[in-house]
Amino acid sequence: MTDCNCETQPNSNVNPSSPILMSNPSIPPRTALVLLILATAAGADGAATAPTGQALDQAANDPTASLMAVQIQNIYSGNYYHLHDASGNTVLLRPVVPFTTGALSHIARATIPYATLSPSGKTGLGDSVLFDLIVFNQSWGRWGIGPVLLLPTATDDALGAEKWAAGPALGFVARQPSLMWGLFNQNLFSFAGNDQRDEVKLSILQPILNYSLPHKWSIGTSEMNITYDWNQGAWANLPLGIKVSKLHKFDTLPVQFSGSYEYNFANAAVVPEWSVNLTIKFLFPI
After folding, report:
1. Kind and range of the H or E element at 138?
2. Contact 137, 100 (CB under 8 A)
């Protein structure tokens, strides 16, 4: 499952009195908040083992798999609707930590974007997204439910919504030895932040389709965050895309490389018309 991330709108609780925020006044508050997210993920207890009965190359594409990972993703948008000769580039850092609380299995994921190129001319951190998915194993696959939270970590108001937002996330993934398919939904509704900015009211659907090929290759749909903006009463993002992935082991470390292309059919707002995505994901099955 992929978290909402875009320049003009927005996969644990943040304590403002945390030592990370208070002990070093030279760290900007929003940067400290990002460091707190990473520290929280890195310190999660009870990390779950790699999913049994599922090939690692398939688990790497499964958002419900209890698989520790660190993903670095580069998204280049070559054109924007309603803007002339505009492009953008964002680098995402996405740590994933599975853990347990009693009999429940969780997947905690943070998505931290950094804009290196934007139509506004601004660069820096964007708004971060954190979610905690509780997953339930079934004979056909898994389903999950949990909260998702938008954090106003953007270092410039042009790169974020300046809002806190939260909502439910739920979905499922069904699988066979070579085929995996499913659907995820995330919802974000603002509850605090800058009163001068628009409220965040977004629902995001992500269809999942992936087919495993020989030699650890796979092909499927791209991340395809189909986004409905309840403020505008319209689709903000209607992408169609394809992704190709390859799993390779460097000694004992499995790494997945993937590339994807998406075209966005929603053109009512200032949003990317197309994008190219290159990803490297380090996997830590334990």
Report:
1. strand 128-138
2. no
Domain of 262 in residue numbering reads as 19-284
pTM here?
0.81
Q: What's the number of domains the chain is made of?
A: 1
Distance CA 40, CA 62 (A): 23
Helix (H, G, I), strand (E, B) or coil at 32: helix
Radius of gyration of the chain (CA): 18
CA 29 – CA 153 distance, rounded (Å): 8
Q: What are phi and psi of 48, to 5 degrees?
A: -80, 160
Residue 104 placed within a domain: yes
The 3-state DSSP composition of the chain as helix, strand, coil percent (nearest 5) reads 10, 55, 35
Q: What is the distance between the alpha carbons of residues 53 and 88, in angstroms, rounded to a whole number?
A: 40
Low-confidence ranges of the chain (pLDDT < 70): 1-53
CA 148: distance to chain centroid? 11
CATH of the domain at 91: 2.40.160.40
Domain-located, residue 182: yes
- pLDDT tens-digit profile of 15-35? 333 332 333 334 454 554 554
